[in-house]
Every structure is written in structure tokens, then in C-alpha cells.
Specification:
Strand content: under 5%
Shape: elongated
Number of strands: 0
Distance between the termini: 75 Å
CATH topology of the domain at 8-162: Tetracycline Repressor, domain 2
Structural class: mainly alpha
Order of helices and strands: HHHHHHHHHHH
Largest sheet: none
Helix content: 55-70%
Length: about 230
């Protein structure tokens, strides 16, 4: 557990160390950054970094918690009257979140440890909690399978961060700039709000197909996946 202290100056120092780690981990990756380089960035001693976070791994865990909370911790801001203000704050100065965006993109693709899995799990848990609250508030429709919906919403959220270069090229740029994020905001929300299809034909087709293929195997009938669709004539 992190050593939390009540001294405001100490908390400020701790936040400065954390912010330096977020920036450096996001820029160069966890493995290439030392405690000493983080200390230099935060203008403190390496011993003070260890004092606050116990280890480099402990510092990374604190960074994970901070970044997840920054993106998904204020769930109520998107439910009530504060939604417009929250979005305006985000869209007015997107670059202030650039270190957090870079951190997620870099750390989610770091396969040298299991920490990337822990970060994704934290994002998934926060997304699930957000959907739960928004369903209860009547903002989001009841899900057919909430764990599946939460998993895909989480994946859809992080893919643009991981594939920034490809997405920017698709939209006619060299990087995922604030202008491109603003351009994407309404189309993405329109997709979530109004959906993609104009009716439920494909949904019903998939439901019928699943119902017809979910029964036990049989020597005859539609439920046998091994049945010859064109048996020889007698």
C-alpha cells in the first residue's frame, strides 16, 4: 500500500514524482526509464521516489491508478447537467491530457510484464462500473450481456490510442491531433447514441441463427454441424 502522508508539501512532491513518471513511461516505456531519471525529472532524490512508492513497480501501479481515474473516475460528470461542461473542458485543451494518452498507449502494449494486463483490467473494471451507473441513471440502455458490452467498449476506447498513427493516416493527418479528436467526437457519439443499422433485421437474423445452432448435435436436422448439406441421392 502506498505511504500516504497528510503534509500538503509532501503530497505535492508525491504528485510531482507521479506526473514525471507518467510522462517518462509514456514517452520511452517502463523498461527504459530508471528511478534516477524520474527523480531528475521531478527534481527530487531517487531515495525520495522509493520513500513514496517503495519501488519502480509501485510507482507504475500508482500511475496506472491515476491515469484510469483521470479518464473514468468522474463518471457522474457524463450523466447529469455537468456533461456539457465536462466535454467543453476536455475539448478546449486536449493537449493537457497528452501525457495520459501516451501513457495508456505505451503501457497497454508493454508485453515485458503482466502489468499491461493489470492496466487493462483496471480500465475494464472502471468501464463496467461506469456502464452500471449509467444504466441505473437511464442514460444507457440495458445490455444483453454487460460483461461483453463492457469489454468491447473498453477495447473500442483504447484502440484509437494504440493505433494513433494508422487512425491519423485514415483521417488525413500525421498524428492524432486535437483537431482530429474534435472531428471524431460527434460521429463517435452519434454511433453510440443512434447505432449503425436502421432496423433490427441483422440482430434478429443473428438471434435466429444462434438459436438454431445452439441445440444438441443430431444425426439429422439443422442442429448437426457435421451433416452433409447435399447428401447423395438414393
Amino acid at each position: 500500500m502506498l505511504n500516504m502522508r497528510s503534509d500538503p508539501e509532501d503530497l505535492t512532491t508525491k504528485a510531482r514524482i507521479r506526473d514525471a513518471a507518467v510522462e517518462l513511461f509514456g514517452r520511452d516505456g517502463f523498461g527504459r526509464i530508471s528511478v534516477r531519471s524520474i527523480a531528475e525529472q521531478a527534481q527530487v532524490s531517487p531515495a525520495l521516489v522509493i520513500h513514496h512508492f517503495a519501488s519502480k513497480e509501485g510507482l507504475r501501479a500508482a500511475c496506472d491508478e491515476y491515469v484510469v481515474d483521470a479518464f473514468l473516475g468522474r463518471k457522474n460528470d457524463l450523466i447529469g447537467e455537468n456533461a456539457s461542461t465536462a466535454m467543453q473542458t476536455w475539448l478546449a485543451d486536449i493537449e493537457q491530457f497528452r501525457p495520459l494518452i501516451d501513457y495508456l498507449a505505451r503501457m497497454l502494449t508493454d508485453n515485458t510484464t503482466t502489468a499491461s494486463d493489470h492496466l487493462f483490467d483496471a480500465l475494464l473494471a472502471a468501464t463496467t462500473a461506469m456502464l452500471d451507473e449509467q444504466i441505473a441513471a437511464g442514460v444507457v440502455r440495458e445490455s444483453l450481456d454487460l460483461p461483453v458490452t463492457a469489454a468491447y467498449v473498453t477495447v473500442y476506447g483504447v484502440v484509437p490510442l494504440i493505433m494513433q498513427r494508422q487512425l491519423a493516416r485514415a483521417l488525413g493527418g500525421e498524428q492524432l491531433s486535437p483537431e482530429m479528436i474534435r472531428r471524431s467526437t460527434l460521429p463517435i457519439l452519434d454511433l453510440y447514441t443512434n447505432g449503425l443499422y436502421t432496423d433490427e433485421r441483422l440482430l434478429e437474423a443473428a438471434r435466429n441463427a444462434l438459436e438454431r445452432t445452439s441445440g444438441p448435435n443430431s444425426d439429422r436436422g439443422m442442429n448437426d454441424p457435421n451433416q452433409d448439406p447435399d447428401p447423395p441421392r438414393q
